[in-house]
Amino acid sequence: MDQQYILEQKAWIDKEIYKGIEQATSEGRLRDSILYSMRAGGKRLRPLLMKNTFDSFTKKNASYISAAIALEMIHTYSLIHDDLPAMDDDDTRRGMKTNHREFDEATAILAGDSLLTMSFETISSDENLSSEEKVFLIKELSRAAGPRGMVSGQMWDMEYENQETDVDTLKTIHLNKTGRLIAFSMVAGGYLAGVGAKKIEKLRRAGEAVGLIFQIQDDILDVTGDKDKLGKPVGSDETNEKSTYPKLMGLEGAKQEKRKYEEEVDSLLKDLQAENTPLAELIAYMSQREY
Amino acid sequence: MDQQYILEQKAWIDKEIYKGIEQATSEGRLRDSILYSMRAGGKRLRPLLMKNTFDSFTKKNASYISAAIALEMIHTYSLIHDDLPAMDDDDTRRGMKTNHREFDEATAILAGDSLLTMSFETISSDENLSSEEKVFLIKELSRAAGPRGMVSGQMWDMEYENQETDVDTLKTIHLNKTGRLIAFSMVAGGYLAGVGAKKIEKLRRAGEAVGLIFQIQDDILDVTGDKDKLGKPVGSDETNEKSTYPKLMGLEGAKQEKRKYEEEVDSLLKDLQAENTPLAELIAYMSQREY
Predict the structure, then answer these.
(1) Residue A15 burial by CB count (10 A; 0-12/13-18/19+): exposed, middle or buried?
(2) Minimal Cα–Cα distance from A166 to chain B, Å?
(3) Is the pLDDT of residue A244 over 80?
(4) Residue B289: what pLDDT?
(5) Confidence category of residue A95, pLDDT binned at 50, 70, 90
């Protein structure tokens, strides 16, 4: 899977996202703030995972667009709220000011609330999905994003800040904070492609492992990465006293841990007869990414 | 409609709400914070409006419970986020500490995010509703709560803070900030009772008017109310330099404005052949409430 392909798909997803937001908002500062964060250089890996899962199991026309937009809206809302002064207190993200620094805290809170609400509006209003499909997607997405999923991950992340953690705790945090939404992208892609319940559970397990791979690679890049490619300073986890895989297991230990999850994913994709698919290629690309 | 009836219904709704929250969260600080705000003395007027609308049009068994819980979750999330230091910066609500004062800002932000997410999970997981019913409710609720509804009202409310406003602007703010969710309670109650599309639009208009009545009465009570009944100081709008109906129209003007909306509601309820129903009684009760 080459960079060019990723960029083309990303451009297409971006266009769909901006269209969706303009339909669901009125002109003004709130829309500006929502669009600002949606435009702020996201890699769109979650929508890409959904698309490539779908394409790996069917030749049907794309029916995942609203689910992909909804997922990216939820991902973006979580970044806006995580960056707030009361949370991680970040001034920049991907080389741009964070939402509350570009606008203000109140606007950032409401932009996040808007995106979270719009994600469910987007799926429920999609005329190309059946009611059963919409309900499946909304149930899955709300569970992945809510207080037994992503939000709990963020809550624990803060509760364990500046505390000694072990690898198991770190895994639980990332599984919820990152893994659940990434798993949703593969569950939704497979479900809409018409894959059965047993295969969906395998896609979910693979997606959770992909989430951990993604996070471990993030931690590794913070040690070994190239500042210019990353668009952020290297070594910031060390400075922020954040628990990371390299810190708990050493750099080699972290790479081995990542390898463990890569093997799990490979084995699940083999079970799913999806080892030579765009999905497998994309996951390999994500696992080796340099930014 | 007497106080006793309201309290009985409220107790029943409360029980359903707490059950719903325990199912959708894990033990810990986040759940404690969510339950704290859900228990903080809400009047449950929105669920009551939904129930009484439903009961006014059908004798069927209650099928609105998840929608009522979802609505109250969204109402509560909006209060938690509105109270934050970056927004209205309130330390107390109904005589209790606000969520971020009892817990902390980060927890309050995440408790609000959780409730908003759980509201859609609650409807989508209700085994007593058809997929069509769930999709209708989620679409309506997300539109009422999102950046063309409640969130936009809160955004404008802040943008117009300490600015001169006129009655039209004030009406637009309250229609969105309060009216849209109250209208949802009547739209959902009527829809689940099996009322047709034309009647649903009348219920929506009546609900928006009820929202304005509710808000004007709030403003009036801030001038004429009894501190002990209200559980909050009287005259705080004056102190906070908030735009209110009595300030823009005088106390008598505000009462007349409220009367105008009461007449609109009466006329709509007559059209709906619902003038002698529990719904009409509840609206009259809300309009005259002393706290």
Answers:
(1) exposed
(2) 19
(3) yes
(4) 82
(5) confident
Across the interface, whether the CB atoms of B155 and A86 are under 8 A apart is answered no
| Number of residues assigned to chain A | 291
pLDDT value, residue B240: 67
Name the CATH code of domain A3-288 (choices 1.20.120.80, 1.10.600.10, 3.40.50.300, 1.20.120.520).
1.10.600.10
Judge whether A30 is closer than 8 Å to chain B, CB to CB: yes
The confidence score (pLDDT) of residue A104 equals 97
Would you tell me how many other CB atoms lie within 10 Å of the CB of residue B264? 17
For A89, the 3-state DSSP assignment is coil
Instruction: Name the residue in chain A with its Cα closest to that of B143.
Output: A121
Cα separation, A64 vs A7, in Å, equals: 19
Touching check for A127 and chain B: CB below 8 Å? no
Closest residue of chain A to B84, computed from CA coordinates: A106
Q: Please, what sign has the CA dihedral across residues B113, B115, B119, B122?
A: positive
* Mutation site, B66, B101, B113, B130, interface A, largest A CB count within 10 A: B113
**Using CB atoms, which residue from B131, B148, B159 is nearest to A131?**
B131
Q: State residue A229's pLDDT score.
A: 72
Picking from B22-31, B170-179, B258-267, which range would have the lowest pLDDT averaged per residue?
B22-31
A107 contacts in B (CB within 8 Å)?
A: 155
pLDDT of the residue at B231: 66
A92-93/A96-97 β-pairing: antiparallel
Q: What average pLDDT score do residues B174-189 get?
A: 97
Query: Is the CB of B25 less than 8 angstroms away from the CB of A147?
Result: yes
**pLDDT score, position A231:** 66
Please, are residues A71 and A208 in contact by the beta-carbon 8 Å criterion? no
- Comparing CB atoms, the residue among B26, B105, B118 nearest residue A86 is B105
In chain B, the DSSP E strands lie at 92-93, 96-97
Q: How far is A265 from chain B (nearest CA, A)?
A: 28
Mean pLDDT of chain B: 92
Within 8 A of A145 by CB-CB distance, chain B residues are 117
pLDDT in tens, A245-285: 999 999 999 999 999 999 999 999 999 999 999 999 999 99
Strands A92-93, B96-97: pairing kind: unpaired
Q: Judge residue B272's burial from the number of C-beta atoms within 10 Å of its C-beta, 0-12 exposed, 13-18 middle, 19 or more buried.
A: buried
Q: Where are the alpha helices (DSSP H) in A194-277?
A: 197-224, 227-230, 236-239, 245-271
A89, A113, A118, best to mutate vs chain B, most B CBs in 10 Å: A113
